[in-house]
């Protein structure tokens, strides 16, 4: 076994590898860019080595710097995590030359399966069913259009070296190929240093199901069952689960056998994932690609099998045979994973950067038959950078049944507090409550189908509405009582702290009476009495307890004259006033909003890649006018109305903030 390994990665995966290495008694070296000098992984490692500026192309992707760091520290092996150099055969080749062990598959397997074009050729040769498409390199835009029209729309344009949802576009017509092909090529070049593209048929109403495989250097290959990863935005996974609610035992066995056969064909000897697109109608499935690395969503497979995949990768790299056979592996319970992203779901999931003023994940551990696990690479006060993927954490819950795991996930999301940047927790909470998801009736078009106009929060149920009104009233009563106690007045004394409030939500006035007592309060809302139980301290950012006997956790943020309250996709602004103050509130006229229809703004912070218009030029609604890059994604900025360009405020290479005006129409 190795005494010291180097981790050629950052963020939560670096922390994840450190934790397993510590348990195995292995020392760790972490390399870091200037943007990550104060990161959690850097603090946890036994040794650290600086490798350059924030852009990955100048730090995490530079093989010479990684090798030099390993030699400098005496690391015997390197774990690449996922992304960056994890699927670079030339990196594995170089480590062989340097006599440093690569904790991953052999270079031949990476070349055969890590490359999306070569993997399809290998799969076809092995008799695996593949999605119709052009198995080869696309020469240019005209060739891309020709191939797309031969296959038939819709098509998927994909980077050959892609991964993590980057370098993918779905095109439904020629115009979208014309726009999407150069964008995918640019993303591929920037993120992977490889701009080769291929095109395949996009299967409508698909489900994304993948098989986790594990091989060793002694010819043994097993699969660790499947993961369902159908809920995606911009082709990047958001929610994953294991096992899949679609598969029966027969289909599971067939997919697992195909995945293992493919792995054996290339002498696969580490953790890897064979991805399939499956039909929800008849359970037919087609090979998509193989990822020759650890997957982001590997924790759900660990939870249902009891295995540590990072440990298995390390042991296999050290030459140990797998200590289990396929017959030894059983599915135990159900696991759900939500990816917590620094992005605004109400702005089409666009990235958000800034400082984590608050970062308080739910408590981890085993609670009865439910397990909660949070994998993260950040702490409160850390900066979320524009240079890397926007993922903050992976929240995983495991329970005996799928519904129990979903309910546990929803409760854990309720307790996950983030402030300082936008996050996607409201969206994730809404999905956990949505009936089709709970039934397992999902496809990769889930988000588009269920939120066709984008996600803008969900309306509260009657019970949720009452809970949020009660929370606002109780929070204000706590504050009022504390103020009276500090001033020396006794509870119950004449002119004591306020008991009656009017809670205003969506212009509706709700007369509320609060009687605080041990363990919470009795709350009367519009004449109906509710029991509000909580031991939460006054002023807490998350108020937990029971409302009419049912558990809850509501996020509470102080706002002018009241609170912003969040609960499972529901966000409300609740103003709290005395009855007299509420009467005055009715007389205040609303402010008129400024007309911003002539302004084209950047929906997120980022770097301007190109500006495709100039003063005097006519633009049509939906036309691309600029490209902004943030967190490894190129985003086309489009005009929202017809008009003539009056002024261009930005130039290529400039940094822009969210809502910064880029172009002004006459």
Walkthrough of the structure:
With 666 residues, the chain is of the alpha+beta class. The protein has five domains: 4-103, 3-Layer(aba) Sandwich (Rossmann fold); 132-201, ATP-grasp fold, A domain (Dna Ligase, domain 1, 2-Layer Sandwich), CATH 3.30.1490; 206-450, D-amino Acid Aminotransferase, Chain A, domain 1; 462-585, Glycoprotein, Type 4 Pilin (2-Layer Sandwich); 599-665, RNA polymerase II/Efflux pump adaptor protein, barrel-sandwich hybrid domain (OB fold (Dihydrolipoamide Acetyltransferase, E2P), Beta Barrel), CATH 2.40.50.100. Helices cover 28% and strands 33% of the residues. A nine-stranded antiparallel β-sheet has the order 14-13-10-11-12-15-23-21-20. A hairpin with a 2-residue loop joins strand 7 and strand 8 (166-171). The termini are far apart. 49% of the residues are buried.
How is this structure best summarized?
This protein is an alpha+beta fold and 666 residues long. Helices cover 28% and strands 33% of the residues. It folds into 5 domains: 4-103, Rossmann fold (3-Layer(aba) Sandwich); 132-201, ATP-grasp fold, A domain (Dna Ligase, domain 1), CATH 3.30.1490.20; 206-450, ATP-grasp fold, B domain (D-amino Acid Aminotransferase, Chain A, domain 1, 2-Layer Sandwich), CATH 3.30.470; 462-585, Glycoprotein, Type 4 Pilin (2-Layer Sandwich); 599-665, OB fold (Dihydrolipoamide Acetyltransferase, E2P).
